[in-house]
Specification:
By secondary structure, the chain is of the alpha/beta class. Helix content is 38%, strand content 13%. It is built from eleven helices and seven strands. A seven-stranded mixed β-sheet has the order 3-2-1-4-7-6-5, with helices on both faces. β2, α3 and β3 form a beta-alpha-beta unit. 34% of the residues are buried.
Length: 287
């Protein structure tokens, strides 16, 4: 299927209540924060950002972290980092699972905070908030930085009961937030891109539809896919590809037909685990 055809299908309009609640809580805590650490997916550097965040955070200094850089095209990630820095934003590529550049983050947080703090501030600790869309790696980042020794800090003014700060060493206090998506996703293609990276639950779109969308990228980067499923070539039709995967993996229903749903799930999971190489899903914007 041609890429443009995905845009002809209207995107689903939705905004779960817990995301709206998380958005409000971020706004409530602004006065307590020095720095906003915005985690994005390196495969979707712009689309994985919440466009409301800049308005919510009221001009607070932000650090953009492109996570899962090991799954994105390296050169494209470098160009995106340059793009953000040219926009006067602090940016860095990281990988929470592989622990790439994680050790550099505390010093960067302290540096950005020092540059923007008001001179009358006497507080030693830097308070920052980790924000990002669902499944972008926020919890993994917090746990990695805390090194399994998360220490709860007492309740602060303006923090609702039951919520706690996490103290990282002696100089940084961190507040995690639930993931929040856009109030409205404008196009079907954007929705499918977010679903492919796991930001939207598979059941909301359907594995078959996500796999069909993934097929267009596989056609352009087929070498590892051919090897993974022992194919001679990648079928031009996505359903034929799923049939080949079903035959390879033994995904056969009781009636003897190929279980294309199970094939789709296998294809999506293999992509997310990086078995097909590095895919940057979002084109770099023209200057």
């Amino acid at each position: 299927m041609e890429r443009e055809s995905f845009d002809k299908v209207k995107a689903v309009g939705w905004y779960p209540g817990h995301m709206l609640k998380a958005r409000r809580k971020i706004a409530e805590k602004l006065k307590l924060l020095d720095v906003i650490v915005e985690l994005r997916d390196a495969r979707l550097p712009m689309l994985s950002a919440n466009p409301d965040l800049q308005d919510i955070t009221g001009g607070k200094p932000r650090i953009i972290l492109l996570n899962k850089c090991g799954l994105a095209e390296r050169q494209m990630t470098k160009e995106w980092i340059t793009y953000f820095r040219n926009e006067k934003l602090s940016a860095m590529e990281i990988d929470c699972l592989q622990k790439i550049n994680i050790k550099k983050l505390p010093d960067l947080i302290k540096k950005i905070a020092a540059e923007h703090r008001k001179k009358r501030s006497f507080r030693k600790e830097v308070r920052c908030l980790i924000a990002g869309i669902p499944n972008v790696g926020k919890s993994t980042l917090v746990n990695t930085m805390a090194k399994g020794k998360k220490a709860a800090v007492g309740a602060r003014p303006g923090v609702t009961k039951g919520q706690q700060w996490i103290k990282l060493g002696e100089e940084i206090e961190l507040l995690d937030t639930p993931g929040i998506l856009w109030p409205k996703i404008e196009t079907r293609e954007h929705e499918l891109q977010l679903a492919l990276t796991g930001a939207i639950k598979d059941r909301l779109i359907g594995p078959r539809k996500i796999a069909e969308f993934l097929h267009q990228y596989i056609l352009k980067n087929s070498e590892k896919v051919v090897k993974q499923y022992r194919l001679s070539v990648i079928p031009e039709d996505s359903e034929n590809l799923l049939e080949k995967i079903a035959e390879w993996g033994g995904f056969i229903s009781l009636g003897g037909s190929c279980d294309l749903q199970q094939s789709a799930i296998k294809l999506i999971n293999d992509y997310r685990q990086g078995k097909f190489g590095n895919f940057t899903l979002e084109d770099f914007p023209e200057k």
